[in-house]
Amino acid sequence: MLVGVPKEIKNHEYRVGLLPAGVRELIHHGHQVVVETHAGAAIGFDNEAYEAVGATIVETAAEIFQRAELVIKVKEPQAVERAQLHDSLTLFTYLHLAPDLPQTEELMSSGAICLAYETVTDARGRLPLLAPMSEVAGRMSVQAGAMCLEKSHGGRGMLLGGVPGTHQGKVVILGGGVVGHNAAQMAVGMGANVTIIDKSVDVLRDLDARFGNRIQALYSTRDAILEEVLAADLVIGAVLVPGASAPKLVTREMVTEMKRGAVLVDVAIDQGGCFETSKPTTHDNPTYVVDDVVHYCVANMPGAVARTSAAALNNATLPFVIELADRGAEAAMKANVHLLHGLNVYHGKITNEQVGEAHGLEYVPAEKLLAA
């Protein structure tokens, strides 16, 4: 199979769909790989590194979309990329379709087979291709929040860990999954006062076993969220409903009542955000202020640490990429139900129920389409 790796074009996105090590594995399996020139150069993988393992370098992304049977990316295809998709192509990348109707409609119109990293599952029902970026984003959320709390960035002028004789910063994390766990790890390490809120008692037990009395683990109710958010210096939105839009847990009214100079970091922004006042931002202009509360809502947070992120992502995606290339998309999905769960759009049809519900579009089970 001919596998293509275009250069990412989203604002400040330096990750790359396949590192040279992954290319070598694909070529060892008998496949051909074409890589857009300088696709990995920003994180230290130049053209020569790809050529050394057998890849062919091409000058434009258009050549990749035209020639490749399987395209491997990191971020959702931008408008100019979506215009180049066609019905002979399989696309494997993050999609986050639930909050993005234009992208959903254009992927349907393209006729392409579109698999989303974020809905691929494993035998325990987890999301193995979302997990590495959730780990990165969770850890980064505390770094970003700590920076935003500095007075020069519009914050309250607080040090999260404080110093002897001063108050610690209060960090409230909404969601105790992979993002929340990693955010808590960093916040505890910085010496902050940390509260995690989650609706799963089992998750709360796991967090209590992991962190003990270094955190407060609370069951999610509207009262708990209101009380903790209003007392917080930093709130991290770490909720996830696989494939669906994030629930709005912090209302606009709550934001108006928060401390002046408090910070909201919305890690759920790819899925629409979990604060009513959230809107996507970029690494160029990462923050804005609403009612004296600083909002950090960068939609590709792991792109800031692109070398670490690309390596972690490639470790997780490579087995699935090889399976798609070895078997072909349809056969691979029929053989691997976890890969099948990644299918969001198939030749013009929505195959993810949450995406269909989010946009009021007809949903057709993937199994039914593949059987036909």
Defining key terms:
372 residues, alpha/beta, Rossmann fold, eight-stranded mixed β-sheet, seven-stranded mixed β-sheet, 15 strands, globular
Based on the structure, what is the oligomeric state of the protein chains?
single chain
Following the backbone from N to C, one meets helices and strands in this order, namely: EHEHEHEHEHEHEHEHEHEHEEEHHHEEHH
Mean pLDDT: 96
Q: How do the strands of the widest beta sheet line up side by side?
A: 3-2-1-4-5-6-14-15
Uncertain runs = none
CATH homologous group name of the largest domain: NAD(P)-binding Rossmann-like Domain
User: Approximately what portion of the residues adopt beta-strand conformation?
Assistant: 15-25%
Q: What's the gyration radius in Å?
A: 21 Å
- Compute the number of strand runs: 15
Helix content: 25-40%
Task: Assign the CATH class of the largest domain.
Answer: Alpha Beta
Structural class from helices and strands?
A: alpha/beta
Taken from the alpha-carbon principal axes, the silhouette is globular
Q: Count of helical segments? A: 15
Summarize the structure.
The protein has 372 residues and is α/β, with parallel strands linked by helices. It is built from 15 helices and 15 strands. The protein has two domains: 2-119 and 306-371, NAD(P)-binding Rossmann-like Domain (Rossmann fold, 3-Layer(aba) Sandwich), CATH 3.40.50.720; 131-299, NAD(P)-binding Rossmann-like Domain (Rossmann fold), CATH 3.40.50.720.
Description:
The protein is globular and about 65 Å long. β5, α5 and β6 form a beta-alpha-beta unit. It has an eight-stranded mixed beta sheet with strand order 3-2-1-4-5-6-14-15, with helices on both faces. Strands 9-8-7-10-11-13-12 form a seven-stranded mixed beta sheet, with helices on both faces. The two termini are 24 Å apart. α11 packs across α12. It is an alpha/beta fold and 372 residues long. 37% of the residues lie in helices and 16% in strands. The chain folds into two domains: 184 residues, Rossmann fold, CATH 3.40.50; 169 residues, Rossmann fold, CATH 3.40.50.720. The chain has 15 helices and 15 strands.
